[in-house]
């Protein structure tokens, strides 16, 4: 059983922690999370969709408490739509391959089945 609270996995705290809850997790393979774009959010920048994928990617790749991590590269990022106040975003990521502390992933953010953004990205675990 996994903990649905992203704070259990990541050092990020609000307002930098974007994920509201983890919906599904298969460590080393896939993860799904939810983000509620609140009415107080006047604008949710598209680039934060990539950050949300990266945060969830750290969890899917098996980020351990106390271990640093960083977004090393973004590849094939595509923005198809934008998030608006009231949207419930679904973030999904899949670990493609791991090379020691480097992990290649792909992710997608959608709302009500409509894809807003996709990206391939590389995460590094540990301190630089």
Automatic annotation (TrEMBL):
Gene3D superfamilies: Hotdog Thioesterase. It comes from the Bacteria. This is (3R)-hydroxyacyl-(Acyl carrier protein) dehydratase. PANTHER family: 3-HYDROXYACYL-[ACYL-CARRIER-PROTEIN] DEHYDRATASE. Pfam families: FabA. The lineage of its organism: Bacteria, Pseudomonadati, Thermodesulfobacteriota, Desulfuromonadia, Geobacterales. One of its GO terms (molecular function) is lyase activity. Keywords: Lyase.
């Amino acid at each position: 059983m996994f903990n649905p609270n992203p704070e259990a996995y990541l050092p990020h705290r609000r307002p930098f922690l974007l994920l509201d809850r983890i919906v599904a997790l298969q460590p080393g393979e896939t993860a799904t999370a939810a983000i509620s774009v609140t009415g107080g959010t006047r604008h949710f920048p598209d680039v934060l969709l990539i950050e949300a994928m990266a945060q969830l990617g750290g969890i899917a790749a098996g980020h351990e408490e106390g271990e640093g991590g960083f977004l090393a590269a973004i590849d094939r990022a595509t923005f198809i739509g934008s998030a608006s106040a009231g949207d419930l975003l679904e973030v999904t990521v899949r670990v493609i391959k791991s090379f020691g502390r480097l992990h290649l992933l792909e992710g997608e953010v959608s709302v009500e089945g409509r894809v807003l953004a996709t990206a391939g990205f590389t995460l590094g675990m540990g301190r630089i």
